[in-house]
Amino acid sequence: MSTTKAVDLPPDTRSRSRARSDPPRRSRRTWRQSLRRDWQLYSLAVLPLLFFAVFRYLPMLGNVIAFRRYRPGGSMFGDEWVGWRYFKLFWHDPSFWHVFTNTLVIGVLTLVVCFPMPIILALLLNEVRSRKFKKLVQSVSYLPHFLSTVIVAGVVMQFLAADGPVNQVLHHVGHKPILFIQQPGWFRSIYVSSELWQTVGWGTILYLAALTSIDDNLYEAARIDGANRWKQTWHVTLPGIRPTMVTLLILNVGTFMAVGFEKILLLYNPLTYPTADVVSTYLYRMGVISNNFSYAAAIGLFESLIGLVLIVTANRISRRAVGTSLW
User: Fold this and answer.
1) CA-CA distance, 327 to 317, in Å (whole number)?
2) pLDDT by residue (tens digit) across 160-191?
3) CA atoms in the 13 A half-sphere facing the CB of 16
4) In this structure, are residues 109 and 192 in contact, taking their beta carbons and an 8 Å threshold?
5) C-alpha count within 13 angstroms, C-beta hemisphere, residue 124
6) Count of CB atoms situated within 10 Å of the CB of 156
7) What per-residue string of b and e applies to 90-114 under the rule 16 or more CB within 10 Å gives b?
8) Residue 315 CA to its chain's centroid (Å)
9) CB–CB of 78/65 below 8 Å?
10) What's the Cα-to-Cα distance from 293 to each of 67, 68, 224, 259, rounded to whole Å?
């Protein structure tokens, strides 16, 4: 029967062996040291932070007039406290719920149509081997992104006018002219189509940039396993760009309620109010045109809270479902 004897090491030997076994500790720099070292990089963030502070966060103080009666010429933050009065007004206002429904419908249509199309176009361009044709399609597709909303709305109205190119083609095939801009039933299709034409190219660039980060060895391994092009796209390409897809989806959900105010304001008219009037245009008429600023502020605050709930919910679902989120 053998016994094991413990060998006592000298104290200095034990301390040296413990020092060698412990991983080295990294010294943490304080924010002052980081600022002193990389002040050139931090200086680039001054103007963007100043922009958001002045034009995004400072105006939040004006939300107080949603709870106070504001009169033009009076106090900037309202004259008297009215509590939830304006919230109760729009809560029982049938017109508000009508424009709220229009906002949901147009938002869902825009999200369903405009979100997947850049992904599809990017996947198609990724399979193109001709670099000249690929660059031509990219240039043509993302050029409308750099046009102002006024120009896009003007082009749409000229094309769909009673004597425009579309109606001229319909006239040549023996069809009567259609008043697209004056008929409520056509407005949602016109808006979604123009939004797709204007945004699909820019979204494609983002996904093409994400495709370049996928390792080519994954495609080679998939080909060795016998995967065809469709299976490679499904099992390699789409998982590779999934973080970008999820991030853009969360951002789109966050702006779900704020559907294109400028474009709708330029395209709609009193005849198309039943299908075109959304919360943002309703706010514009109530606040700016009717001078009912407190009522408009209450609706705007309600809209912002819904957007906050949507983006937080989408971020939490994304984190639990696919492991990718904004924060």
Assistant:
1) 12
2) 988 889 999 988 888 888 889 899 999 999 99
3) 5
4) yes
5) 12
6) 22
7) beebeebeebbebbeebbebbbeeb
8) 13
9) yes
10) 11, 10, 66, 21
